[in-house]
């Protein structure tokens, strides 16, 4: 299976990809553009999404709302990465379907623990595809 990281900052994307690679042997795809990431999600069922909140053209919340409209993504874990500490953002994100949060700068141990909690999780749609 494959994890999608949606992050427009190349340095942050590289850090997230390297940290994820220490937790899982799943393929990891990085995309910087939300619109292209949505297209990818229409064509590929990713096992997990790691989404930056601040993206050019759309927010991470807008991306997640669009993803949750695709029923095959109902159970796919979505981790939001944000520097925003506002509790209202977290409430809104949770209501939108975010299953976990990472605060920037990302703490390596917290990231690995959060990812490890979801790695190996197989939503019904993924299990049926096998």
Give a brief outline of the structure.
With 130 residues, the protein is α/β, with parallel strands linked by helices.
Q: Would you kindly provide a written description of the structure presented here, covering whatever features stand out?
A:
It is a single chain. With about 130 residues, the protein is of the alpha/beta class. The protein has one domain (about 1-120): 3-Layer(aba) Sandwich (Rossmann fold). Helices cover about 45% and strands about 20% of the residues. It has helices at about 10-20, 35-45, 60-70, 85-95, 110-120, 125-130, and strands at about 1-5, 25-30, 50, 80, 100-105. It has a five-stranded parallel β-sheet, sandwiched between helices. Helix 2 (about 35-45) runs parallel beside helix 3 (about 60-70). The radius of gyration is 13 Å and the shape is globular. The N and C termini lie close together (about 10 Å).
Helical content (DSSP H or I, runs of 4+): 40-55%
Sequence stretches where pLDDT stays below 50 over 5 or more residues: 121-130
Q: Give the averaged pLDDT, no decimals.
A: 88
Strand content: 15-25%
Number of strands: 5
Keywords: Phosphoprotein, Transcription, Transcription regulation
Modified residues (4-aspartylphosphate): 52
Domain Response regulatory: 2-119
InterPro entries: Bact_response_regulator, CheY-like_superfamily, Sig_transdc_resp-reg_receiver
């Amino acid at each position: 299976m494959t994890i999608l990281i949606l992050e427009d900052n190349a340095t942050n994307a590289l850090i997230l990809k390297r940290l994820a690679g220490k937790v899982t042997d799943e393929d990891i795809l990085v995309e910087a553009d939300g619109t292209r990431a949505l297209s990818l999600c229409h064509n590929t069922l990713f096992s997990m999404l790691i989404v930056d909140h601040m993206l050019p053209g759309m927010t991470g919340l807008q991306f997640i709302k669009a993803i949750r409209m695709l029923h095959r993504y109902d159970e796919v874990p979505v981790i939001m990465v944000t520097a925003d500490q506002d509790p209202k953002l977290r409430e809104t994100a949770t209501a939108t379907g975010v299953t976990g949060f990472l605060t920037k700068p990302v703490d390596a141990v917290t990231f690995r623990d959060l990812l490890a909690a979801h790695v190996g999780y197989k939503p019904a749609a993924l299990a049926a595809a096998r």
